[in-house]
Amino acid sequence: MTSSLTSDRIAEALGALRRATPRIHCITNAVAQSFTANVLLALGAVPSMTIAPEEVAGFASSADALLINLGTLDETRRLAIPIALRAAQEAKRPIVLDPVFVNRSEIRCTFARDLLQERPTLLRANRDEMAALFPSREPFDALAESGAILAMTGAEDVVGERGRTLRLGNGHPLLARVTATGCAGGAVMAAFLAVETDPVIAAAMGVSVFNIAGEIAAEQAAGPGSLVPALLDALYLLDGQEISKRLNIIEQREGRHA
Amino acid sequence: MTSSLTSDRIAEALGALRRATPRIHCITNAVAQSFTANVLLALGAVPSMTIAPEEVAGFASSADALLINLGTLDETRRLAIPIALRAAQEAKRPIVLDPVFVNRSEIRCTFARDLLQERPTLLRANRDEMAALFPSREPFDALAESGAILAMTGAEDVVGERGRTLRLGNGHPLLARVTATGCAGGAVMAAFLAVETDPVIAAAMGVSVFNIAGEIAAEQAAGPGSLVPALLDALYLLDGQEISKRLNIIEQREGRHA
Amino acid sequence: MTSSLTSDRIAEALGALRRATPRIHCITNAVAQSFTANVLLALGAVPSMTIAPEEVAGFASSADALLINLGTLDETRRLAIPIALRAAQEAKRPIVLDPVFVNRSEIRCTFARDLLQERPTLLRANRDEMAALFPSREPFDALAESGAILAMTGAEDVVGERGRTLRLGNGHPLLARVTATGCAGGAVMAAFLAVETDPVIAAAMGVSVFNIAGEIAAEQAAGPGSLVPALLDALYLLDGQEISKRLNIIEQREGRHA
């Protein structure tokens, strides 16, 4: 039972997160920085966001988790990311890697493959990005070598590792009409990795909490503009009752595939 | 008649834009990035925003239009912009150039004049910026050499080329109390250039759609804070009826001047 | 009486600010840029935000005040900041220095100490940052040498210089759940320094106006998401009656300490 996801377990972890106020260091793209910081603050975590190569090791090793997002991958970020990743790795911090748009840039794709060698805890990617990273391989098999678990986002989200997956059904199409919702979702997973030791469960918690808040917000919003404040409010106000009412686990698979 | 602007024609183009979901690559300033991305998403387009010189050619040539905005013109942007402009030019993509604050920085002004040699489709500028770019010349005459059309923004917007201009009257003063509304308006013009082949009409559509959404939002907003979500919602919800009700074309001039 | 803070005096300065529309040049962190610009616009000031070393001297010397914020201190900012500071100093513009997170980064701390030698008008810092800058010294004594006045932020804000301090009690805990509220507060102080010649009074005005707007917004908001538009609206709508009703000066000390 300890390895399965329930709404009670999510609510407990959310409470623990709010008490612990973990600091999540985010090397994320320029478009997502402000929204990601506000998502983490609304959730109950604390963001730090510097990307300066000279400073990032200290910020990453003293943080409770690290998010690396490859959007707007400029020279400063390209220098800072491996430094931060190794600092977090040495300090045994959980690490989320979000290889944004590797399917559009060969440079990013090569860079992301190199980062996977450094064994991040979690890879967050959509199907196009996975196909670019691992052409003609089954995603969970491909990742087994690196030891990372996978959160594959889409209309339905699949979280897990080879032989153990959760299919999650929360979310709302209006989230795709706001920039950086996916990027901020990766930061929420990092925040749950800071308080929940089972990384598959932590990732599933992050996906579910963000998407449930998105559902609540979409019901209140007239469009993508009013969705943003409503989403941050929903993350701030989210409680066990709402999680229990809305959590949509399509399938939870514990056994080995094949 | 095909060369004149009507509310029906705007509504049709907006429908085409929403179906085509053109990707607009934006090299824009750090202050405007997030808001511009959200404006494009609310409108129905897709933003991509990287400014890395190594990656920007691929992003620009595969996009449906390119926006170049000279705000916060740092070294990375200064390197990336000519690369992106040429890549988009070779791929025959429409290009919007927004020479923000060239009247405050000689470096930018020289840089913007060089970019005009590369023949962008549209120059979006206010009167002070035009005066800095072309001292003591009539704006439409000055631009005729470069082949670019002009969207000159102000209390009243003037869009066109030598001998063919539209004066447009939509908008609201509260828009000037929100950062990057002008910059985001340039992105909306780029989005219409991706679906409408007559660049004068496309620019006028972009100006009108953004400003009509601004009027709707200003009527609902208590101030510049609530204007932002209302503006994004208005862009998302905008329909032909609202466009028809509000479109304010002060003058549409088809003949040659002089 | 001219050296003391009253709600009437704040209301008059706010009126003067709105009439003068001072331009505040902000070299601030990537997370805070957009929100800071919107706070200044809502207040009635005009932001300029470039951080390019090649351009920043002209922008800073022609501005009415300069804000230097050390968050996300990358190489471009590290180069631009001393240039901007000296340009503003030569042009006799007021300068606010906000040494964000100097307690987390030795590089920043050294950099901030060097900047203090250049005699900014105002240092905005919390207790942890002051302790990092001046270990085992009383904050107001430590600053006396540099000639800067201090705005020390916290649950209660203390503004002043050795022998002359104001303790200010406005504000709301929800402000801490939104990123960059502190950074934007520094920009508001810079805006009041542009219209009020007594820097202690100007800083106290900035602190009070921002925090009063925060209180109004927090009463209307459901959470940190809806706080942001409400805060900007409150800054835009703030009037003398509201300031008079809410201003909370805990103590105003004119005499010399000890």
From TrEMBL, chains A, B, C:
State the protein's purpose: Catalyzes the phosphorylation of the hydroxyl group of 4-methyl-5-beta-hydroxyethylthiazole (THZ).
Database matches in Gene3D superfamilies: 3.40.1190.20
Q: Which domain of life is it from?
A: Bacteria
- What keywords sit in the KW lines? ATP-binding, Kinase, Magnesium, Metal-binding, Nucleotide-binding, Thiamine biosynthesis, Transferase
Its Gene Ontology molecular function terms? kinase activity
The record lists the organism as Roseibium polysiphoniae
One Pfam family from the UniProt entry? HK
Q: Which InterPro entries match?
A: Hyethyz_kinase (IPR000417), Ribokinase-like (IPR029056)
Q: Where are the transmembrane segments?
A: none
Which protein, by its recorded name, is this?
A: Hydroxyethylthiazole kinase
Top enzyme class, one word, equals: transferase
